[in-house]
Write a structure and sequence with these properties.
The protein is mainly α and 278 residues long. It is built from ten helices and no strands.
Length: 278
């Protein structure tokens, strides 16, 4: 067994044990919640060791299965503490593979334990939270790498580069994104009154939202290059609009339109073009 394999084995074992230790109390609360504990009256112990749904599926083996899922979840997280690769391309591929594995384990845990009440939307929320945590961790790592590069450039007397993930370049466009994703649908709702949401529904989702996010993203991309945070801002703004002005049934559709259109816009705007005469 190589040293790297030993490191992986140690992280898997430690992560799995920590996963069991952490998820037993947390999972007990979730098990009670999904089985109606939130609405219970009278004397009530807000803890259920084994999921009711898992007991129905696995019978006497439910506890062992649930502990195994906890261990697996902790093991996957434990592996993430190891460096995946030295070069960028391999790092991205392995990071995406690890995220897919983590999302798969989380989906298995949530569905088997019934923590999504047998519905798709809660599962999507779980996965979105996982993606947000994963993104936050990588943003922190990126900031650390950027700080190291900036320090090296400063010592060499080089011109400072752009801000991490070009957040400073994206900042002036945040009000525009919020206006597109929050202000415009709110205004259209006021114009519609209590009638059929034609303006804030069909016309906004199929025309105003994608065109606005695409155009603003292209303008940002042309001026500052690829800015990955702008699609995120549009997606978050649309997420807020869904819960403030719409309902969860359009969550995936509207957020996908906002995020995808803005992403396509900044990518198209940042795409290098040949100068005249080349």
């Amino acid at each position: 067994m190589t040293d790297r394999q030993k490191q992986w084995l140690v992280r898997i074992l430690i992560g799995g044990l920590i996963g069991v230790a952490v998820l037993v109390p947390v999972g007990g609360l979730f098990n009670d919640l999904v089985s109606g504990g939130l609405l219970a009256t009278g004397t009530h112990a807000p803890f259920r060791l084994v999921s009711w749904e898992l007991e129905r599926l696995a019978g006497p083996a439910a506890l062992a299965v649930q502990l195994g899922l906890y261990f697996l979840m902790g093991a996957v997280v434990g592996v993430s503490t190891l460096p995946f690769a030295d070069d960028g391309a391999t790092l991205v591929r392995r990071s995406l593979a690890h995220f897919a594995a983590t999302a798969g384990v989380l989906t298995l845990l949530v569905c088997l334990c019934g923590w999504n009440w047998g519905k798709v939307v809660p599962l999507v929320v779980y996965l979105a939270l996982l993606a947000a945590v994963y993104l936050l961790i990588w943003l922190v790592r990126w900031a650390g790498w950027y700080a190291e590069v900036a320090a090296i450039r400063a010592k060499l007397g080089l011109v400072p580069g752009s801000s991490p993930l070009k957040w400073r370049e994206t900042l002036p466009y945040v009000p525009l994104a919020l206006a597109l994703c929050l202000g415009v649908p709110w205004l259209l709702r006021q114009l519609e009154g209590s009638g059929m949401p034609l303006l804030s529904g069909t016309i906004y989702a199929q025309l105003l939202l994608p065109v606005g996010c695409l155009a603003s993203g292209m303008w940002l991309g042309k001026r500052h290059g690829f800015c990955p945070l702008y699609p995120v801002v549009c997606g978050v703004g649309m997420l807020a609009a869904v819960f403030l002005l719409y309902n969860y049934t359009v969550l995936i559709l509207f957020c996908a339109i906002a995020f995808g259109s803005a992403l396509l816009g900044v990518a198209a705007g940042a795409y290098p073009r040949k100068k005249e005469g080349d």
